[in-house]
Amino acid sequence: MYNEVGRDEIRIEMLEVYAYHGVYPKEKEKGQTFYINATLYADIHKAGLEDKLELTVNYGDVCMFIDRWMKENTYQLLEAVAEKLSKAILLKYDLISAIDLEIRKPEAPIELPFGCVSVKVHREWHKVFLALGSNMGDREGYISGAVHALKEHPQIRVNKISDMIVTEPYGDVEQEDFLNGVLEAETLLGPEELLEACHDIEDAANRKRTIHWGPRTLDIDILFYDKLVYESETLVIPHPDMENRDFVLRPMNMLAPFFRHPVLKKTMVQLLQEL
Questions:
Q1: Whole-structure pTM value
Q2: CA geometry: angle at 71 spanning 68 and 75, to 5°?
Q3: What are the residues whose beta carbons fall under 8 Å from the beta carbon of 56, sequence distance 6 or more?
Q4: Which residues are the active-site residues?
Q5: How far apart are CA 73 and CA 139, in angstroms?
Q6: Confidence of residue 176 (pLDDT cuts 50, 70, 90)
Q7: How far apart are CA 49 and CA 68, in angstroms?
Q8: Which of 10, 16, 193, 262 is most buried, taking the most CB atoms under 10 A from its CB?
Q9: How many CB atoms sit inside 10 A of residue 106's CB?
């Protein structure tokens, strides 16, 4: 979890709910009993000091929300129930930064003696930094459109945006100057899901990927995802070569000068000074 400060826990154990989830028709028609275990991660230190309900997570309200959600929705798999419900809780309650959620199904259709079947997931808000850039057409319009699209995404919360700066193109391609900036956000999306969301926004701005380091209407790059070090065929985090890019480090210093690169082990201030 990106917020190591808020490691306090509120636990809900064996919440009994009657709902209609399952693969077989009779499970959806007659329903059955489910038990919910949830560990809610939130910073409740201030609530403990001041003894005020509004400074913490109302666990009674969370229980009622779980009961209502379980009854109003129907899924075939416990995996889907756990995935959807965990994110619904994180979206509903701003103070909850992460959740461990277990869905227990003691009446599962198994023709053998058993105690219980359950699925348990951990889901959390992830802190990310995204680089924004444009050097074609209405640069301000493309970037403001991207910010709006990110704000409208149901699983992304935009926290801060740097000033936009004009920079010379990076690489050997002759082209117009760029308008660049960095955005700080929180997301429930995984790294590849976030990349797909960024590509969708780029595509909506008619982004063409024909020339490497070439001109573009809109560029959205994932710089950091928590402290994750990740590599796949389509994505590398932290963003490679960012330590050599003034147009990334300057906006990063506006937002998070003391954020430390998880591979290079240097802050944004240090990287900019060295550059």
A1: 0.89
A2: 125
A3: 10, 42, 44, 47, 95
A4: 105
A5: 43
A6: confident
A7: 32
A8: 10
A9: 13
